[in-house]
Design goal:
Helices cover about 15% and strands about 35% of the residues. It has about 180 residues and is α/β, with parallel strands linked by helices. The chain has a single domain, classed as Alpha-Beta Complex (Nucleoside Triphosphate Pyrophosphohydrolase), CATH 3.90.79.10. Strands 3, 4, 5, 6, 7, 8, 9, 10 and 11 form a 9-stranded mixed β-sheet that branches. A two-stranded antiparallel sheet has the order 1-2. A hairpin with a 4-residue loop joins strand 3 and strand 4. The radius of gyration is 15 Å and the shape is globular. The two termini are about 15 Å apart. About 30% of the residues are buried.
């Protein structure tokens, strides 16, 4: 896959081989005024949860629907999952590609584009009911401190796995001019 310059008015963010089917998604790095980040707890079975793991903590967000623009998808997902409404276009800070069959049903991999959303701390409660969140394998949400993520020694995973490093840069105010490429 060869990355190309991403523009918010484009549906697809990468050029990929014609045979590859990638699930395109948008996610929000929601940083509260006290520098905590809001993460969703995804439980097995879910494409973000690898075989052998039971939980992955990841930024809220989800798939871009056919014909939907990325920022419109981000606004929809945040409203549904967290209740947060954003008016301004947030900066596009990270880009992640994980080409692996079975990572997402019917796809050869996933492409996640992350946007930085600064806000005051709030109690996340979106438009989706608990049953609807459970159907999306979201089993909870939590505000995490950077140090708690960086020092975490439990069995849960984070997505991206090394979220602590790029998160530290965002907390320090280092907003990239072009999205930072992330690994799994």
């Amino acid at each position: 896959m060869r990355p190309v310059r991403w523009r918010p008015d484009h549906l697809y963010v990468n050029e990929t081989p014609a045979t590859a089917r990638l699930r395109h998604a948008v996610r929000a790095v929601i940083l509260a005024d006290d520098d905590r980040v809001l993460l969703c707890r995804f439980s097995f079975p879910h494409p973000a949860v690898p075989t052998g793991a039971t939980v992955v903590w990841a930024a809220p967000g989800g798939g871009i629907e056919p014909g939907e623009l990325p920022l419109a998808a981000l606004r929809r997902e945040l409203h549904e999952e967290t209740g947060l409404v954003i008016d301004a276009d947030p900066p596009h800070v990270w880009h992640q590609e994980a080409a692996a069959p079975c990572r997402a049903d019917g796809y050869d991999g996933v492409v996640n584009d992350y946007f930085l959303v600064r806000t005051t701390c709030f109690d996340p409660r979106g438009a989706l009911s608990d049953d609807e969140l459970a159907a999306e394998h979201i089993s909870g949400m939590r505000w995490w401190r950077h140090g708690d993520i960086a020092e975490y020694g439990g069995t849960d995973l984070f997505s991206p796995r090394d979220i602590a490093t790029p998160l530290a840069a965002l907390i320090a105010g280092d907003i990239p001019g072009t999205p930072l490429m992330l690994g799994l």
